[in-house]
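User: Here's a chain of 685 residues. Predict its fold as tokens.
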Amino acid sequence: MEFLSRGITDHRRLVTAAFIVLALVCALAQFGVEVNYDLAEYLPENTGSSEAIGVMESEFTQPTPNARVMIRDVGTQEALAYKERLAGIDGVSGTLWLDDVLDLKAPVEMADSALVEQYYKDRNALISLTIREGDELGTMRRIYDVIGDGNALSGEAVGSGAMQITAGAETTQAMLILLPLILIILLLSTTSWLEPLLFFAAIGVSVIVNMGTNILFGGVSFITQAISPILQLAVSLDYAIFLLHAFEDYRGQTDDAVAAMRMAMKRAFPSVAASAATTLFGFLALVFMDFRLGADLGLILAKGIVLSFISVMTFLPALTLCCRGLLDKTRRRKLLPAFKAVGRAVPKVRAPVFILVLALIIPAFLAQRRNEFIYGFDKLNETSRSGYDAAATEAVFGPYNPIVLLVPKGSVADETLLAERCASLPNVTGVMSYTGAVGDVIPNEFLDAGDAEQFYSENFCRIVIYSDTDTEGDAAFALVDAINDAAGEYYGQFHTLGSSVVLRDMKDVVTRDNTFVNFIAIASILAVLAVTFRSAMLPVILLMTIESAIWLNLSVPYFTATPLCYIGYLVISTVQLGATVDYAILLTDHYRANRRSMLKLEAIRVSLGEVFASILVSGLILALAGFTLGMTSTNPIVSDMGILLGRGAVFSMLLVVCFLPAALVILDKPVMRTTHRSGFLEKKG
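Assistant: Prediction complete.
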């Protein structure tokens, strides 16, 4: 550390310039990072839906429709004209309407009304489209140009395009709200007008470098893109605060700013490293999820923590020394009070607080395991064009949830029986198959090639089952099971795919991930704490404090009967642990140091007075980051994670300030006996 601190301080201008150049390069590189909006791609390759998607892509040239256009108040010929115009749009690879399943030369009034009303109802035409993957946004805009404001566009591809419109704007909006709030908190808690800007510079550079270096991964999920910059900023600002506070302390002891910074770097390094390590291992635990979104999010967040650590220990010292003249000129008194009264008040209520938390954590633990979960994100904001169009289309034609069934080609009789069986299932509104559209008398080789390709590939027959269920929930998942059971009666091998199938697989995979990922996070952080404190009891107390805060946080949706996005539930357990255990480490470290010269009550009183302001500042910043994400995002996964993170930061902060001091005092003797060379002062007599 001596060599490093000398090298950085002696070459501070070079170090500062190098980081600025790196940040500029990465700021440009981030525009080359692809953002993935399809969560199905993060499912393991051995899941049924992933295998089915692979078979579909390899066997069929005509993909299934992923969007719907509703044309209001038109006759059949006008609808056909719209269909022709839509088919000519760049990015639309297929269209499907009533003329594909009926001969429109005959009056539609003579046809099966149930079949007709799937496509044409009350002079409203519903045309299904296939929008080319990866070109959803541009194709949406071209479709809007054709259909105008009076008609509606909805569907899975539209949801993806809508997210592409809002994702970047919402992250920017969140930053514009969050940064001024953080600036106010930092101005209240620092002794220079310039200090907060140095904090932002150090962490801001690391955030930009993190986002730019994502290009090495080829692409990231939209969830990672939305939350990682804000979470990295909120979690790692502490590192910068630790270093500059140490620098200020040493500036009071020496007039040599360079020497003060070298001493500050040596003093801050262990605490910043320990804080970064616990957060790092918490985020890396996500890598072990079978649902690969965890690896995507965990690796980017872990990389961000490493980059923040490097920036704080190299760029921030160099930049601070370059700006030390301005730093001195902008000195002022700290505006935030010392909160010494907290240290006197909390120990007095230690027993009731300890008992209250113990009484709450068991029902909280049980409640958070019984939450009602959702697994997808298909509910669009109804105030947006896409959300309004989806609601308008559903109001006329009802819910739309197609499930595609791929069965081995060969037996037309089995195809007919299976299609009839599927049509009789609850919530099924229609079935499209070769035998239903053409009949089982005409061999498919006599059909027009385009018509045959809709239903047959070289090896498979495609049957599309339409239902009126939501894409997820008990009814949707029960229908998936019923279709699989029906297909299993006729075929030994088959594949199903569709939004409900993907979400059913997602539910199975992420539910399995929960216990294992939490175990990895807890075990790794427990090991770091055991090494840090050289104690058997202290790591258990610290983890119990944060885990209790997590259970209380996750129990709120149960008691308020609010469905919770399961991905947010799974990720937040690890993120809250990694991000807020630092508060517990800070208080415990001060308590352990003070306990060597004080008795337990005096030690906890002094320790609380020393660290309360730091915990408050850190907790408020993390809480504001979470709540800002929750309020600005229209995506339920990102919004849920934001609310959980904000509320979790508040719970962690409260338990560290109230419950942890009580636990440390009440369990002082076991802590002393299980800590290597604790050196705790023992009461005489």
